[in-house]
Specification:
The protein contains six helices and eight strands, in the order βαβαββαβαββααβ. It has 200 residues and is an alpha/beta fold. Helix 5 runs antiparallel to helix 6.
């Protein structure tokens, strides 16, 4: 998954990876971080707070988390691909205000069950703004890993979509998805679709 150099993304991406996902040959968290200038991958189950997970002091109110809740984006009545939610799981009217001036986003990486474990073991995530994805297209990863919901994407795809909209740079998405296509092409001869996965 070589590239001309790391992408100079503005929005910092912190990926919290469940230890079991690290063992997956087709996990996309590490390749995602290698392609971005401002990204960090940490493996574990729990951290005291965002600053400890990130390794530096930050204001969690200026960060968002890709939310795993029961909200179905299609039922929220929004056409946008990134939807901000309030603490009740409802989309506020002023979406732009919720998405403005974010310094970073946390993405949980693992199967659906593993990602939910990370969510519940790190209650400080509740202090952050919540985002859900409403992608126009199904996951490319669905060809080699079954996804439990239409909006479930691989970590690489989720980050690509976030940066496309929150950094305002569609070319980032194109570069990241190109890298994913290469990964899938390399894996396809030896892999059949397996287990239900949601690398978020």
């Amino acid at each position: 998954m070589a590239s001309a150099g790391p992408i100079d993304n503005r929005l910092f991406v912190l990926i919290l990876q469940h230890p079991q996902e690290k063992k997956e040959a087709l996990a996309t968290a590490a390749p995602t971080c290698s392609l971005l200038s401002h990204a960090r991958l940490v493996v574990g189950l729990s951290w005291p707070n965002l600053s400890r997970a990130l390794g530096r002091s930050v204001d969690p109110r200026r960060w968002a988390v890709l939310y795993l809740g029961s909200a179905r984006p299609a039922a929220l009545g929004h056409l946008r691909e990134i939807i901000a939610l309030d603490r009740r799981g409802e989309p506020p009217a002023n979406q732009e205000a919720m998405l403005r001036r974010l310094d970073g986003v946390v993405v949980l990486d693992g199967t659906w069950k593993e990602a939910k474990t990370l969510w519940w073991r790190n209650p400080w995530l509740l202090k952050m703004r919540r985002l859900v994805l409403n992608p126009e297209h199904k996951s490319r990863y669905g060809r080699i890993r079954r996804e439990p919901r239409r909006e479930a994407l691989s970590t690489l795809e989720a980050v690509a979509l976030l940066l496309k909209h929150l950094d305002g740079r569609p070319e980032i998405e194109a570069t990241l998805l190109g890298a994913l296509d290469r990964l899938i092409a390399e894996a396809r001869p030896s892999r059949q679709p397996v287990g239900e996965r949601v690398s978020r």
